[in-house]
Amino acid sequence: QAAAGGGRAGPRACGVHNVCRLLTRRAHGFYARDAGVAHRKNLGLLRKIMCQESTKFKNVWTTHSASPIAYERGRIYMDNYQCCISSIAQEPRILYQKSKCAKSEKIEDALLLECPLGEMLPNPSDYKASLIVLTVQNWLLRLSADSGEVLEKVYLAGSCCKFFRYLSWDTPQEVMIVKSAQNKLPAAARQAGIQQTVLFYLAVFQVLPLSFIGMLEINKKIFGNSVTDVAVSNGILIVMYSMGLVRLYNFKAILEQFMEQPFDLGQEFNWNGQVGVVGKYPFGLPCNIKITDTPPLLFEASSLENAFQIGGYPWHYIITPNKKKHKGVFHICSLKDNALAKNGVQDMKCCSLEPDWIYFHPDMSGRIIHVGPNLIKVLKLKEVKNHADQMEIAEDFTIVANRENCVNNSVTVTASGRVVKKRFTSLDDDPEQETFKIVDYEDELDLLSTVAVTQIGADGRAHLDFHCNEHGILLKSIPLKESWDVTYSHEVYFDKDLVLHIEQKPNRRFSCHVYQMVCDTARDD
């Protein structure tokens, strides 16, 4: 830096002469010229305040709805995204409320779109958060997250009968995938001997500014007859088959190799006898990526229920052997040579109604989280001693449910002295014992959150716990005031100083409970 600019090197002035220390201090944000320093310091302060014993989380607001409730970055969406409520204020307030939409305008899926840092965008509205929604009539709309105003609209389906239903990220906040429902012929057409070869359509978009990359078919003739589903993630096309097989292909290479002609939104086109405007009704989008030959296979694996995950460093994958008797058994293998890691078979041997689950830690540390009814294991990959080319799975830390008062004797003695033997043992996820239901990670505060539930009489009681992500130490426990019915679905969001619990109740009723951080002073009491 001094040689290039003729000035004095900033870090040297701080008295740091060791490269490793310099890089560590830089990662921790020690240098004031780093734009993220103030933000990191503020989050560190927030974490300390939040974990103090005197800090409480208060239930400030509850609402109910006859339709599902969704939450995205401080915004609560109700009535099929027609009503948006800000949860950031001291008491949630309505940002916008639209009139009830017709069934033909029903929203099928939605993604929150946030402005990328350090990029020049064509429109001032692009710098604010927006919501991309997919309607039942194949319209893709970009709405203002604060007002609900329609900023952009694209018609997806042309002359082909495509029912687009799902939105997902290929690259988060950069490349978006719009997927159709699986194409199925009417019964009359099947009886007439007509065969359907196209299973799915995928439309690919670059976002901010919204631009069309291409549309392609997933065809039986190319990928085989037993395809059940497809997905795209991080530049990989994932194809799943009915017999548990999972195959991976290079999605970017497919786009480049089989692109027939690029198109821009709003561009007039003459395509296969059709004349129209790209993204406008009634023409929609052209299917301009035609896969004419099977793409090169990157990787394939067989796993029960197509369960397949990649992560860790060096790269590993997690599967369950493709037999029903192995349900709940997980194999962790090297992606390089398919070698099973030492201690790579993870089996909690749970006897429970709900299966345990496993996944790579979202904090990008390469660790693995394995969750059972009463035990959470955080595992790590490390080199086998004296065998640098072999990896083993080691326990980093565990979190254990509080079952100290649980006595599960198979033989009991009554007051009269009669011996009673139980004919069965209780399940590991018995509602009367504390059981883990949700595990999540808050990336900005670097906290691991868990929700544990215990059935007490007719009511279920839950508490949200915050654990140190590095060592698993319990830092804070928050009791949820409302009853928790284990027979229905629940979602719990922990977003900085906000906790939000969305639950489904009988007869498809939904409730949303908002908790906010408050200082527990004598005046509040």
TrEMBL record:
Transmembrane annotation, as ranges: 198-218, 230-249
Gene Ontology BP term (one): protein ubiquitination
GO annotations of cellular component type: Cul4-RING E3 ubiquitin ligase complex
Superkingdom of this protein's organism: Eukaryota
This protein's UniProt keywords: Membrane, Transmembrane, Transmembrane helix
Keyword Repeat: no
PANTHER family documented for this protein: DDB1- AND CUL4-ASSOCIATED FACTOR 17
Protein name per UniProt: DCA17 factor
Source organism of this protein record: Pteruthius melanotis
Gene: Dcaf17
